Amino acid sequence: MGFEGEQLKITVGCCGNAGLSLRDYSEKFEAIEIQSTFYRLPSINTAENWRQQVRKDFIFTMKAFQGITHPINSPTWRKAGSQKPIEKVENYGHLKPNEQNFECWINTVKICKALKAKVCVVQLPPSFICNEENAKNIVEFFKNVEKPFAVAIELRHRSWDENQGMLEKSLKEIEAIHVVDPLVKKPFLKNKKGYYRLHGLSKRLDYRYQYRDDELLKLLEEIKRIGCQDNFVMFNNLSMREDAIRFKELVEDGFVSALEGKNLEDRLRIILKGIRFPIKAKELSDKRGYLLIRVNSKTFTLSEVIKMISSKEFNSFDELLNLMKASLFEK
What we know:
Shape: globular
Helix content: 25-40%
CATH topology of the largest domain: TIM Barrel
CATH architecture of the largest domain: Alpha-Beta Barrel
CATH superfamily of the largest domain: Protein of unknown function UPF0759
Number of strands: 13
CATH class of the largest domain: Alpha Beta
Strand content: 15-25%
Structural class: alpha/beta
Distance between the termini: 43 Å
Number of helices: 12
Radius of gyration: 22 Å
Oligomer: single chain
């Protein structure tokens, strides 16, 4: 459904299926960013099957195949299997406008079409620094390929942030979206579409990060301030499912499930929704251990609290709650 009003639409999803089957995921969200296409492209039949598993208005976006963006020495190629090139390997990556990269793009487009993808995310590695050659490659590559969808470009080297004019000029020439995290920076170029990827707010990428209520509120404010008509907000952290659901509630209903909860019991009920007791401590830690609990201005992961308790099994919610209270309020 997303949020629409005064020509502003916000669609919330995750980078990946957040531990759910595609069909179950599509019942909770309106969009998904397919990650696996970056490492290796599926067959067209597989992509068509994914499309058939979901409702007609469900939106796919996907990452472009790494052959277009990442040189052959990138560790990401380890997951490419038989799709890793063995000839003319020096030609791959960094959007070099050559036969090998164009072929990778053609194959990427085929999968996008099978999925009826609205956006293709082109993620450049940190080795793709800001210089005249790379800025020229961005333009020359995309001026010479088919683009039956929006192209969203994410740059991972900070030198691009220091050369706004060069990047803005290149993106404007090819009508591309500048992918950013609005809590960190604004896009250099405003388009009708906005594409935002949320990786956490630490100085370095921190996939364990979970967003606070005030941060989700600020995220919504920043998206409105940027003012793109059609916005995709894609969470890419370990708690992506919960954070995306909370932000979706905020967008649609003006309400966000509190990270803290009104108290420890409320918060615990939120993060243990769907958990059946009795449950082994290790199993609970594996399933929900990354989620956060805040007590007396201190933040703990559920795994950290379970270690404090030193119990191997919990027979009921009340038992776990009482053990947590005993451990946390002694700290």
